[in-house]
Each structure stands twice: as C-alpha cells, then as structure tokens.
Design brief:
Shape: elongated
Structural class: alpha+beta
Helix content: 40-55%
Distance between the termini: 40 Å
Number of helices: 13
Largest sheet: 5 strands, antiparallel
Oligomer: single chain
Amino acid sequence: MRLKLDHRIQIDQRTASSPNLTNRFGVDDLARIGEAVWSGYDQDCASRGAWVRRNRAAMELALQVKPGKSFPWPNASNVAFPLLTIAALQFHSRAYPALFSGSEIVKYRVPGMDPTGALETQATLVGRYMSHQAMDLDESFEEQHDRLLIHVPIVGCAFVKTRYSATDRHNVSELVPAEDLVIDYFAKSVESAWRKTQHVVLYRNDIYERCTAGIFRDILEEPWYTTSATPQLPQTQSEKYRVTGFTQPPSGDGEALLFLEQHTWLDLDGDGYAEPYIVTIERSSKAVVRIVARWESSDDVERIGGGRILRIRPTEYYTKYELIPSPDGGIYGLGFGALLGPLNESVDTIVNQLIDGGTMATAAGGFLSKGVKMRGGAMTFQPFGWNHVESTGDDLRKGIFPLPVREPSAVLFNLLSLLINYTQRISGSTDVMAGENPGQNTAVRNMQAMLEQGMKIYNATFKRLWRAMRAEFQKLYILNARHMPLSVPFGEAVVGR
C-alpha cells in the first residue's frame, strides 16, 4: 500500500542511524502510518486464525487442562492423559544436552587454505569469546533456549530475537513464542515475509524510560496514555490466563499496555520503492511511538546511476526454530500438538470411558418395587453394619432388581494400547528410547540396532535446530562486528573484529 504523506525523508546515513524518525513527520502522517501498520497486522492475524485455534488446543493438552464435564453425569471422569507432555519432555531431554554440551557452544571453522594456522587460531578465539558472551555475559541466554526447547515440540516452532542492548552493552537473545510473532501464514520464510509484528507488553515505567531516553517519542501527556485504565494484553496472553485458570492482574499504577512492533516495508521517501523500517504502535489507540530504519548504514543501500536506489539489505532480527516444516507450506512449523492432538483426545475419551464403566460396575444402583418397605429413606452401609427394614427377606429378594451394568469392555483396553503405541512411534518416546528395558534376554546387537533406528527421527529434527542455532550465532557475529570494540582482552589473548 502506497502512503500519501505530507512529509518525506531522505535515505542517508542520518536516517539509518537515527534512534527515532517520528519527529520528521506531522500528526496526520503518523496517523496514516499507524493505520497502515494496523491494517497489515489485521490481515496477518486473519491469515493464521486456524493455526492459532490449533495452537491453543495443543497448549491445553500439554498443560493437561480440561473443562468440567456433565456427561454421562455431573463430575464424571475427566482424565487428561499426558501423551503430549511426555513427548515434549522426551524431546527436550535429548535436545537440550545435545545443543548445550559443555561451555564452548560456538565453534568456527576456516574454509579454504590456512598454511600458517593463523586463521584457525583466530577462529578458535572467536568461538570461545562468543561462547563466553552467550553463556556468561547474557545471563538469560541458556534459560531462554531451555524454554524454547519445551515450546518447540508442543507448538511446532518458536522464534529468537537477536539484538544489541545499548543499556546492557552486550548482545541479547530473547525467546519470542510463535503466538506472539504475527506473520502471514503463507509467507515463504521469516526473511522474505513482508511484515513481522511482535506483541510487546510494556509497563508504564518501561514506557517512561523509553520516552525519556528518546527511544519513544514523548507520549506521556497524550490523552490515550493518561486516560488508559484497562490493561491491554495480547489475545494470546488473555488466552493463557483462561487455559491455566489464573486471573488477569488487576489494573493499577503498574498497568501493562500492548505495543505492536512491526518489521515492515514502507515507502517514506516517495520514490516508489518501499524501504525496511521498524514501526512501533500502541494497539488500542494505533498511535505511532517509534519509527527506526531496519538497515545499519549506507553500505546496505545499493544504488545505480543517478543515485537511484536499487535495493536495501534489511537487518534480520528473528531466527525460527521448528520441529517439522508444515506440509501445507505455512510459515509456522508442525509440532506434537497437531500430530498427537487427535490421538491424545481419543486416548482421553477411552480412559474416561473405562473409569466411568468401572464406577458404574462398582457402585451401580437398581430398582425397588413398591412392596419393599424401608424406614428413613436412603440407607448407608458400613462393615459389620445391619439395617432394619419392615419387609421380609423374601420380599426384599423379589423387590430389589440391580441395574444391569456390563464390565468395561476389553476391546476398549486393547484399542487404548494400540493408540498409545502409535503416539510413541510418532513422538519417538518408545520403551528403549525412554530408558526402559524392552524385555529379558534381548541381544546387545538387537538393542543397539533399535536405538539406532529410534535416533534417526530425532537426528533429523535435531539437524533443523542445529541449523537454526547456527543462523542465530551468525546474527550475533554480525552484531559483534558492528558494536564490539576493535579489540577485547580475553584471557591471555586478544579478540578483534
């Protein structure tokens, strides 16, 4: 969509390095930009509507949350069998130690010839220093990836946002759950997507700090900010409260506001070519609080004769980690929530039927004829207890007819075993892979062959995670080249960029 703006900006180094470009536009221009950002966000939300519903169902299964039941009777059995939870934990227990084995998680190799070995030495130092950055300087790096490896097998994918923190003076990697990064569902890749919109929840202190530092434009006296009394949370956040049973925090001085940080393309110089920008708006008012260039310097701008822009290389912040690529070509990966969800629900149904059938067989009532005379209404029984009635034993035998209830079917139990077996095949959490003994007198060679075959599925998935982590470290390497000092003392050596 081409914007009709009253003011235009110049594509130069000043624009690329500006912390906020909103001061170059008037009120009407900012309103038009805010509407364009909101319109794109709304379109992307609509494109992934079916995925969001499927994702919420998967999270409910993983958290083993079940709504109350009234069939076949109130408070009937409502077991949530933890098939999806077991699959996620099994995957996490293998992937986490594989990716974070030891303290040196970053390693670089030297392509081509290196006759003196100097390049190999420098690559080793760079890998050690970046491992130090990730594991020591960024204290949340390992924790964020730990959570990521639980989130990915359930939902199918998650994102890591890589950026340089001017406040902390080091690189930061943040986990962005898939539900909090809105992308057109049929985008080919994260890098080629026209828009990426992240839900960012900020408290008033956070907003005040950003306005004071010049990161946000001064909005502290605007009516939409001063009169806002209701916390604005993303729909996915409100859904989390509903699923887990927790209540939303009450509004007050520390109320949260929802901002939409959109990485998009906008033609703000009026030359017909849209440039990459990051635009941040407040969700309820659609007020633009920040516009910043999504390229680093003039070197990222390619021009042809006459100074006309040919292309601009945007800076990419997000790295996608996924379990299985979606077969329908969607940007969001496929997780155990979608693969095991229908099977898990069937297993839940059968388990509840078996429990309800056992309850009926154990505590079923029956019919009483009018000839049976009893005093005091309903009777209770206890061991060695006898109750007085006004009827004879023969009358009781003739007047009481137990409800004909069948024992739980063995067919249901066999079907339950079949479904659980196939869910284990899909998730790779078979007996051998879970560390259980498959049986006595199993030959060592057979055991090794079973473990080998069981690891093949995991290895393919692990390769995708390894590829994503490599892409994340490449982003961190580029950030070091831009923001790191020319040389940094590191142990007995010096690491340079």
